[in-house]
Amino acid sequence: MTIFLYDLVAEADRRPSPFCFRIKLALAHKRLAFETAPVAMTDIKALEGGAFKTVPILKDGERVVGDSWAIADYLDEAYPDHPPLFHSPEERGLCRFLEAWLFSGVLQQVLRFYLKDIHDLLLEKDRAYFRQSREARFRCTLEEAAAGREARLDAMRAGFDPARITLTHQGQPFLSGQTLGYADCILAGVFLWIEAIGTVPLLVEGDPLVAYLERVRASLAR
């Protein structure tokens, strides 16, 4: 039985969702075969009887699960004999902290930086909705968000210093320790998302996070 993952799609089959990248990493870590079902942003509301407003949505037989956290919990519950995403309840709590830190501060800067890039690569049918909703959220036009963004680049990169410090000072290959866990799916999912949507790279040669992302990729390729 094949696992299906509804995955946000843009032009040239690019995938502009950090949450979907997160779950694709989680599925790969658990060594679970899956297929992605690409979906346009404005078509999400028509999926599975209109039960969900966002992706990812995972369909495993008769079970349909939305929200990346609920999907992660489901995968560990349904496939306990596969590598775990959460090694303990305490680790799960730390993952919650990581997500709150990222999405309440750091990623607001990142999203603002790349808003126009995302808009320009979306499917034509999705661009008007994206512009309207994001301009309302950020209280500026997409063009205003992009203006002078190079001056904000160093500060945006520095926002990820806690991850660099953790990996360097702990001397561990992954945020979760010696083996990959859900914390790494969260963080690496962000970097893969930026690779997919950004016209300006976030990570540059010599950055410890470049080596970190390569370790994540190597771990999942085994």
Molecular structure report:
By secondary structure, this protein is of the alpha+beta class. Helices cover 55% and strands 9% of the residues. The protein has 9 helices and 4 strands. It has helices at 18-29, 68-78, 89-121, 124-138, 142-146, 153-158, 161-170, 182-197, 208-221; strands at 3-8, 34-39, 57-60, 63-66. A 4-stranded mixed β-sheet has the order 2-1-3-4, with helices on one face. The protein is globular and about 50 Å long. 31% of the residues are buried. InterPro entries: Glutathione-S-Trfase_C_sf (IPR036282), Glutathione_S-Trfase_N (IPR004045), GST_Omega/HSP26 (IPR050983), GST_UstS-like_C (IPR054416), Thioredoxin-like_sf (IPR036249). It comes from Polyangium jinanense. Residues 7-83 form the GST N-terminal domain. This is Glutathione S-transferase N-terminal domain-containing protein.
Short note summarizing the structure:
This protein is α+β, with helices and mostly antiparallel strands and 222 residues long.
Distance between the termini: 22 Å
- CATH architecture label of the largest domain: Up-down Bundle
Average of pLDDT: 96
Our Rg estimate from Cα atoms comes to: 17 Å
Main β-sheet: number of strands, strand sense, barrel status? Answer: 4 strands, mixed
Please tally the β strands and state the result. 4
Shape: globular
Task: Please estimate the helix content.
Answer: 40-55%
Beta content: 5-15%
Spatial strand order of the main sheet: 2-1-3-4
The run of helices and strands is EHEEEHHHHHHHH
CATH class of the largest domain: Mainly Alpha
Number of domains: 2
Provide the CATH topology of the largest domain.
Glutathione S-transferase Yfyf (Class Pi), Chain A, domain 2
Number of helices: 9
Q: Find the structural class using helix and strand composition.
A: alpha+beta
Which residues form runs of ≥5 with pLDDT under 50? none
InterPro entries: Glutathione-S-Trfase_C_sf (IPR036282), Glutathione_S-Trfase_N (IPR004045), GST_Omega/HSP26 (IPR050983), GST_UstS-like_C (IPR054416), Thioredoxin-like_sf (IPR036249)
Pfam families: GST_C_7 (PF22041), GST_N_2 (PF13409)
Protein name: Glutathione S-transferase N-terminal domain-containing protein
GO cellular component, one term: cytoplasm
